[in-house]
Amino acid sequence: MIASVLVANRGEIACRILRTVRRLGMRGIAVYHFADRNAPHVAMADEALELTGSVPTAAYLDQAQIIQACLRAGVDSVHPGYGFLAENAAFAEAVAAAGLVFVGPDADTIRLMGDKIASRNFARAQNVPVAPSATDEGDPTAFLRQAAAIGFPLLIKASAGGGGKGMKIVRSADELQENIRVAASEALRYFGDGRVYAEKLVEAPRHIEVQVLGDGEGSVIHLHERECSIQRRHQKVIEEAPAPRLPPSVKNAICDAAVRLATAARYRNAGTIEFILGADGAFYFLEMNTRLQVEHPVTEEIVGLDLVEEQLRIADGKGLSRRQDEIRISGHSIEVRICAEQPERDFRPATGVCGVLRWPADARVEAGVAEGQEVTAAFDSMLAKIITTGSTRLEAADRMKHALDEFVLLGVPNNADYLARIVAHEAFREGRLDTNFLVEHSADLLPAQRAPEPAAILAALMADAGFRRVVDDVPALHAAIGRWRN
Prior knowledge:
Layout: E1 4-7, H1 11-23, E2 27-33, H2 40-44, E3 47-51, H3 56-60, H4 63-73, E4 77-79, H5 89-97, E5 101-102, H6 107-114, H7 116-125, E6 133-135, H8 140-150, E7 154-158, E8 168-170, H9 173-191, E9 196-200, E10 206-215, E11 220-232, E12 235-241, H10 248-264, E13 268-277, E14 283-289, H11 296-303, H12 307-315, E15 332-339, E16 341-342, E17 348-349, E18 352-353, E19 357-358, E20 364-367, E21 374-375, E22 382-390, H13 393-406, E23 408-409, H14 416-424, H15 426-429, H16 437-440, H17 442-445, H18 454-462, H19 465-473, H20 477-481
Parallel strand pairs: 1-2, 1-4, 2-3, 4-5
Antiparallel strand pairs: 6-9, 7-8, 7-9, 10-11, 10-13, 11-12, 12-15, 13-14, 15-22, 16-17, 18-21, 19-23, 20-22
Helix pairs in contact: 5-6, 13-14
C-alpha cells in the first residue's frame, strides 16, 4: 500500500497534492531549489529535500536527482503534478525502474498521447472525430499539396507541441510554405522535434475538455466536461464546469467520445481529453493530457470527488471508487488564474516581493505563494487559483467577482482586476464564449488606466495591520548599522 508520496513539483500544485496526502495519513515529501526554500510547499511537507541546478527550473527537471531524493526519503510513490516531468515517458519509466509507483499512466500511454500525430491517428481509429488534416511524411511537395487540398484557413501545429508553440495560422496558399518552415523550426527549438501537421482551422471555436478516470484494466468513467474557451495566445485564463449553453446531445457525444478513446487506450489514472467545438456543433479531438490539469478543482467542486485521492487510489491498485451512474453534477464552478503579469502592458511578466497578501474569505484558494516570498522570472507566472462555486452559474460568477474584489496582493503586479472585468462582462455572464473572447472584447477588458499614486499605495499598506507589525519590527537605523557611522 502507498504510505508516502514525493511530489516532484513546486508551487500551488505541490501544495494541493500535499494537502490530500496529509489528509489521507500518508507521509508527504517535497523537493525544492534554493530559490524556493521559503515557498509554502516546503513548509507543508513532512520532509523537504533540496535539489541543485544551474537554474531553478533545471533542478525540477533533473530526473536522476529526483529519483535519488526518492530513495533517500524512502518513499513508495512519486506524484508529478503538472508541467515539468508530468508527461515525460522516460521519467515514468525511471520511477518504475527504481521500484516506485508513478502516480499517473504508464510510459507507453504517455508516449502515445504526447505525440499529437500518433494520438490523432489513434483517435481516428476509435471513431473519435478528428479535423481534416495532412501530415508531413518526409515529402515536402506532397505535404504542401495535401495541406492545400484541405482548404484555407489552416492551422500548422507541432506534433510534440503545446502552449501555442510551433503553431501558425495560414489563410492563403501564398503563406503556406513559409509558415510550415517557421512552425517546424519553432517546434524543433522548443521540443526537439520538428515534425508538424496541418489541419482545418475552426474559427473562434469553443474549447471543451472531459475529465476521465481509468483503472488501467479497461474501466473508464468521465466526470463531465469543462469549458476552457477564455484563452489568451492559446493559454487558458478562466475555466468552468459544466460548460454553459452546451446542448445535451453535443455534451453526451463529446463525453462518450472521450470515454471511448480512454477505454481503447486502457488508460490508467486521471487524464483529460480536449476537443474544439465549432459553431455548427461539430467537434474534433484536439489532444489528451496524461496528467492532472490546472483546472481540475472546478470538476472536483461539481462532482464532489478529490481527484488527487482518486489518483492515489488508482495508483495503489484499488481501482475506481465510483461507477459512471454514481457521478452527479451539483452546481456550477468557476476558476481564475492569478498571474504575475501586467495586462495593461501587453501582459508583460512581473516580479517582486509579496508584501501584503489577502485571500478572499468565501472562495477556494489554491496558492503557491505567501507574504514575504519573492516572485522571480524563473518560473511560470501563475501564482494561485481562485475557485468559486454556486448553485447556478450566475451565482458562481457573482461570488468570483466579489472574491476578486476582496483579493489583495501588493508588491507584485497581477491580473486580478483584469479577471474581475472578464467575469463581470455581459457576454461572459450570458455564456457567450469562444477562444476569441478576449480579443473581441479587449476594449472593454483593458481600459486605459493610470497607475496608482504612490500615496495611495502607502495608505493601503499603512491601513494593513500585518504590514504595520512588520514596520514596527524594523530596528532604528543607527541600531541596525551598529558602530559604523558616516
